[in-house]
Specification:
Blueprint (H helix, E strand, L loop, with lengths): L6 E4 L4 H16 L7 E5 L5 H16 L3 H10 E5 L5 H11 L6 E4 L6 H10 L7 E5 L6 H12 L7 E4 L6 H12 L12 E10 L7 H5 L2 H19 L8 H14 L8 E6 L17 E6 L11 E7 L5 E8 L17 E7 L2 E10 L7 E10 L7 H11 L8 H11 L8 E4 L31
Helix pairs in contact: 1-2, 1-3, 1-11, 6-12, 9-12, 10-12
Length: 460
């Protein structure tokens, strides 16, 4: 698949473009990875100079302005202003594309506008030999995701559709995939014979940050579980792909999604932090969850019987994403009694820093054969690595779909969570805690929830 010869992004005046896209484009230019026309499309009334000014402000605030790289980026920028529902907007875009024959169109706009834009691109002749990038959320449930897929496929065949989930482009998440398949010592124990349970926690110390109206439309399950956290779970549990190409990777991911048992209401506890109802745009009697804890199973020979516990929430004690894989205890207790909490484990901290550690036991100094928990820690610096949007936009321009989600995988993920969307009561919890106490029932009979802790500094 050849590289695209122009990048068009709809929503050029929007919040996503300001916070993420312009800084990513500047970084791509700085690395020498972007040298094609960049056409921003936004509401009428803007000018090219206004777009350049906004891009400069964006890079200054969020990327650190690089005068040399920005000058190059500025020279590549074009602008088309107009209403997405008017044919004249797409006629102007066709003219702005000039000699470009295989552009990539990035829809950094609400999903409700996808159909309008896709049909407009087709009518103006801008979709032939082109690719399209669409942002999450891709649907609100299974039916809407299927309808959205049908709509996009009316114009773009699946190989030309790139569903972007910025979480998959994070260096930390990529490191998880690499660590799993680049090290042979994990494979013999990475199955139900040795693994007792798996916990995944994604905690955010902040609340909805003034986006109450948006959050009322999603909630924690739609916002981070159906996409980010199920993707992490797939990377943890998938078998090695049969090849290095993108389709081999995506086929293996699909196999895992389809092996996940759909959730039931008894598998889930939902919560809402005290004060959420006071947020602007939030209904006074809202039942939207800002916290969720759930128990999930995978029906496969490798994972049958291993419980997977996922927890995500806002207004938690710290901002962190961490995975803890608890191994089974030794079959005989030869030495001192070892509590379940002191068993061996593998821990992956995915943010805000990359840490991989192995929990073990070592003998305490002295005459007695008594042990203590120790942790073997490896820290990995992500300094200088590509940001997620930089990586994903570059891949889409090159036609590499490895880190993008296929239509059938999106639908399979919705099938897992759909039975519990809005199910059960929403329980109140205090900001700064790890969610409602009732969440403990999700892990009843196994380990308590593993609460991530601030990392201790390593002495020089």
């Amino acid at each position: 698949m050849s590289a695209s010869d122009a990048l068009v992004f709809f929503g050029a005046s929007g919040d996503l473009a300001y916070k993420k896209i312009f800084p990513a484009l500047q970084s791509m230019v700085r690395r020498g990875e972007l040298d094609i026309p960049i056409i921003g499309v936004a509401r009428p009334g803007w000018t090219l100079e206004q777009l350049r000014e906004r891009a400069r402000a964006s890079c200054t605030e969020y990327g650190g302005l690089d005068e040399v790289a920005f000058a190059k980026l500025s020279s590549l920028l074009r602008f088309v202003g107009g209403d997405y529902g008017e044919a004249a907007t797409f006629t102007a875009l066709k003219q702005a594309l000039g000699d470009a024959r295989s552009p990539v169109h990035y829809l950094a706009i609400p999903p409700s506008l996808f159909g309008t834009v896709v049909q407009g691109l087709a009518a103006a002749g801008c979709a032939e030999h082109a690719r399209v990038i669409v942002e999450k959320p891709f649907g609100r449930d299974l039916a809407s995701a299927q309808a959205l897929n049908r709509l996009v496929h009316e114009v773009f065949p699946e190989p030309m559709v790139f569903r972007i989930d910025h979480y998959l482009g994070k260096e930390e998440v990529q490191n998880l995939l690499y660590f799993r398949f680049a090290n042979a010592f994990l494979e013999p124990i990475w199955n139900r014979n040795y693994i007792d349970s798996v916990q995944i926690t994604m905690a955010e110390q902040f609340g909805v940050q003034g986006r109450g109206k948006f959050y009322e439309e999603v909630g924690a399950i739609r916002d981070v579980v159906q996409n980010h956290l199920l993707q992490i779970m797939v990377l943890l549990t998938m078998d090695p792909p049969y090849g290095r190409d993108a389709e081999a990777m995506r086929a293996e991911k699909l196999r895992l999604f389809r092996a996940m048992k759909p959730l039931a209401p008894e598998d889930v506890v939902r919560g809402q932090f005290r004060g959420y109802l006071d947020e602007e745009g939030v209904a006074p009697n809202s039942q939207v969850e800002t916290f969720v804890a759930l128990r999930l199973q995978i029906d496969s020979w490798r994972w049958a019987g291993v419980p997977f516990y996922i927890r995500a929430g806002k207004c938690m004690p710290m901002t962190v994403t961490e995975v803890k894989v608890d191994l089974k205890q030794p079959p005989l207790d030869i030495f001192d009694g070892i509590s379940p909490a002191a068993s061996n484990y593998v821990r992956f901290r995915l943010s805000p820093e990359v840490i991989i550690s192995i929990g073990a036991r070592a003998k305490r100094p002295g005459e007695e054969m008594e042990g203590e928990a120790v942790e073997l820690v490896a820290r990995h610096s992500a300094a200088g690595s590509k940001g997620p949007y930089e990586r994903l936009l570059g891949d889409a321009i090159r036609g590499d779909s490895s880190l993008f989600t296929r239509d059938d995988s999106v639908e399979a993920a919705w099938s897992v969570v759909e039975p519990v969307l809005g199910a059960g009561p929403v329980l109140l919890y205090e900001p700064g805690t790890w969610g409602p106490s009732e969440a403990q029932v999700v892990v009843e009979g196994t380990e308590p929830w593993h609460d991530p802790q601030p990392e201790k500094s390593t002495p020089c």
